[in-house]
Amino acid sequence: MVKQSDFISESVVRQEPCRICGSSEGIKIAETEFWNLQNCNIVQCTSCKLIQLDPMITLENTAIGCHAYYLKEIIETPVLEQKRNLLRNYRRGIVFARSLQKKGVHPETILEFGPGSGYFSAGIQFIFPGCRITVVDIVDEVMKMNQEIHVFNVFSGSPEDIRLFEDRKFDLIIARDILEHVTDIGRVILNIAALLNPHGLFHFITPNGKEDVWGHYINWEFRKKPSELLINHVNYFEGAGLLKCLTDSGFSKLEYYTYQVKYALRGKGWKRKEKLAVPVSTKQRADELIRLHEKNQGAQYFQKDEILDVFIFRTKIVWLINLYCRYKHHWLIHLDPRRNVGHEIHALFIKK
User: Fold this and answer.
1) From CA 84, how far away is CA 106, in angstroms rounded?
2) What is the DSSP pairing of strand 25-34 with strand 11-13?
3) In angstroms, rounded to a whole number, what is the distance separating the alpha carbons of residues 180 and 262?
4) Does position 47 have pLDDT exceeding 50, yes or no?
5) CATH no., domain 11-351
6) What is residue 217's predicted lDDT score, i.e. its pLDDT?
7) Is the separation of the CB atoms in 3 and 342 below 8 Å?
8) Average pLDDT of span 93-116
9) What is the pTM of this model?
10) What is the DSSP string of 38-76?
């Protein structure tokens, strides 16, 4: 049976106030280094329980580090696995869109922050062919790929800045694996509410913060050395605190659960064992990785027809495709995120 453990650490005065409640009090969970770019503490707010980097990564360092991590993933992921990931995201988009269809929801305008490959939204478009999709990212290669492969409308920017959209509104906003990256989570949630039409939907997934931060905490507890932070997770969410932030910002929950418990069973989030620690920082150079990749390779795109050239999609039988995708991406175990157990938080909220 998994037992929850609290963080045991020293009280500190934050360098920057909490981005949800504004408190300056916290407990220091760890020290970390974002590539070779910036050193930050990981601090939990003693008031609202949000865990954040303190000080926050600067916008310039975020852009460099995100680009480097995007290239690192391409370099380290075999081509066959890259193709499989694109197909998985397409199937997940179909499953999600089908769930909306069953609720009687048919979004016409969709905005996705941080679309990655774009195949999740492409899967939604399979179910809702007439929907218009806009995507936003800070990595140029991501925007170029989404525009060329999927013909989405693209904007360069972040969820912190909604001036990009002037008076535009959306029926559905998607932020899958994005909220953990934004520098001002309180502002972002308010921005998303402002961008939605009345009764518009907000869908996101984000890591269970207790599991996500645990390796950094264990590294600091056992080694007292900064841990390596290559992907810019700057927020680590506690389930009850995130829910309160959303409801206080004008949302009501439709779906809110965690899934995939195998990591909790291995000890993430509760077991104090050094084997669960993340690596000590080696100050990997982000700029060198970017220069090396651009010189030797550049971005690699796969044609959409090539990715979808598999039997199930060649059938063109929509009900069979829906059934297959549901079979591949159905989670049997759903837990309350307030228990802080489970690998990922899945959420669908509606604007009040």
Assistant:
1) 28
2) antiparallel
3) 21
4) yes
5) 3.40.50.150
6) 97
7) no
8) 97
9) 0.93
10) EEEEEEEETTT--EEEESPPPHHHHHHHHHHHHHHHHHH
- Contact, 6 vs 28, CB < 8 A? no
Cα–Cα nearest to 159, from 197, 230, 117, 111:
111
Written as one letter, the residue type at 321 is: I
What kind and span of H or E run contains 323?
A: helix 318-328
State the virtual CA torsion across 125, 176, 338, 189 in degrees, nearest 10: -100
Query: Percent of the chain, pLDDT > 70?
Result: 97
Specify the pLDDT at position 1: 36
* 206-225 confidence digits (pLDDT tens): 999 999 999 999 999 999 99
Q: At 228, is the secondary structure helix, strand, or coil?
A: strand
Report cis status (omega within 30 of 0) of the bond before 55.
yes
- CB-based contact 164:181 (threshold 8 Å): no
The structural domains of the chain, with segments of one domain joined by +, span 11-351
**Euclidean distance between CA atoms 223 and 62, whole angstroms:** 26
The identity of residue 240, as a single letter, is A
